[in-house]
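Weekly modeling sync, notes
Attendees: AB, CL, MP (scribe)

Item 1: holo prediction request
CL wants a bound-state model with adenosine-5'-diphosphate before deciding which constructs to order. AB pointed out that an apo prediction alone won't tell us much about the pocket. Agreed to run with the ligand included and paste results into these notes for async review.

Input as submitted:
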Amino acid sequence: MKLLSSKLDPTSLKVRLTSGIAAFSAIGLGGLAVWTSVRMQHILVSTHKENIVYIAERFPHDVEIYSDMVSLEEGAQRAIDNLSNDNKILWIKDNNNVVSAKSNKLEDEAIATKLLSLKNVPPIPQVQDLRGDYWLLCATPLTVNGVTLGEFYIAQDITSDQIMFLNLIRSLIIATLIAIATMTITIAFYINRSMKPLKRISQITSNISADKLNEAQIHLEKAPSEVRELADTFEQMLERLAQSWEHQRQLLSNVSHELRTPLTIISGYLQSTLRRGSNLTDIQREALTTASSEADRTVQLLKDLLDLARADSGAIHFQNEKILLNDLIVDVAEMAQQYSDRHINVEAPNKSIAIEADLNRLKQVLLNLIDNAVKYSEPGTNITVKLCSKNNDAVIAVCDRGVGIPLQQQPRIFERFYRIDEARNRAGGTGLGLSIVKTLVEGMGGKITVRSQLGEGSTFTVCFREV
Ligand code: ADP
């Protein structure tokens, strides 16, 4: 269904071109068909009409010639006999509407009832359908030598010609419709093929991520030259973007690196002043405490930025080794407990579960997740680190019973600088923690997911292949 709707998108170039060309060809072929039928009508019917008009015009003169020796009525009858044949029937109705002369064919009762009862016959020949038979009919007043003899009627049976004409029209309509349908299908197929290179460009470009800008290559063989030109321009643009992205990354990495050292020194001085300054007033102590915690926060931010810049440029090197997770989670929980004054539960099976990863980076990941669990839950609530093995995967889950994360925001929390709502983030933070966690986990070949319910709590799960 989705495929069909995407194929029939009325705003797409493909549909517009196909329908436009199909409409033009329909108008062209339709016009040709109409013209052909008019010509056929002319050939089949109009010749009869011209003949009837000619007879109607000549008839008074013929009667005049015949009535030289006989009466006018007799002359009219002879003229009618002379002009009548199997298909052509003539008759005269006198001024009292009584038939005064007629073709022999009118002796046939069926034909007589059909034709003689006709009223309002037009003076110009017209085709009439008389119960399945087609007749060309006309009636003109007849005046000979100044004497009005009544109304002169001519009827020509054109049934066979008319049926032939109607059959031809029917065949023409069918042929035109088949031609339009065939043309539309062929055009749609051709346009679809011509659009493929454009689709390919959009597919390739939609898969390009910021860190793969310089790897992107749009090679199109057999594409029209205009599309190849577009692909080349795109490639050049991607190259320029990759360069500026690299500069930006370099700058970020340098700035973070340069700022981190002096800030770490400042933070160290502030802390030692606080420790040793026995003669500090309360206000001075408070100011120094705030300055120290802000300096720490900024150092952390710079560390995070440096990590991300390194990960982006592929400069993060993981020293993978075999790690026994059962021991690691106990160590990490104890470390986190010291920083946060919160009890962290640990649930692990008796069976040893080991993975290949970088020990320090994995500790950084778990501490970060526990730190978030502490930040976003009330002091009395439970925080648990669980370890289990599932289908040859080692699974570490950090669970809290805190504020939770709204469903629609869950995919976004791993983005850089993404924080849900400043009001709930009273605990402070930079919005970089989870994006670093994800970069590190994926860098070590693992996966991270989140499950959370607003007001109920969150569970962050990290998965690695077991060894
Ligand atoms: P921050 O420095 O803000 O903690 P993170 O990248 O670690 O940045 O987290 C991004 C956002 O995800 C946070 O601002 C927070 O709103 C939300 N979040 C992270 N962990 C949890 C959690 N355990 N419970 C509720 N919300 C969380």
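Recorded for review: The chain has ten helices and twelve strands.
Action items: CL to compare against the apo run; MP to circulate these notes.
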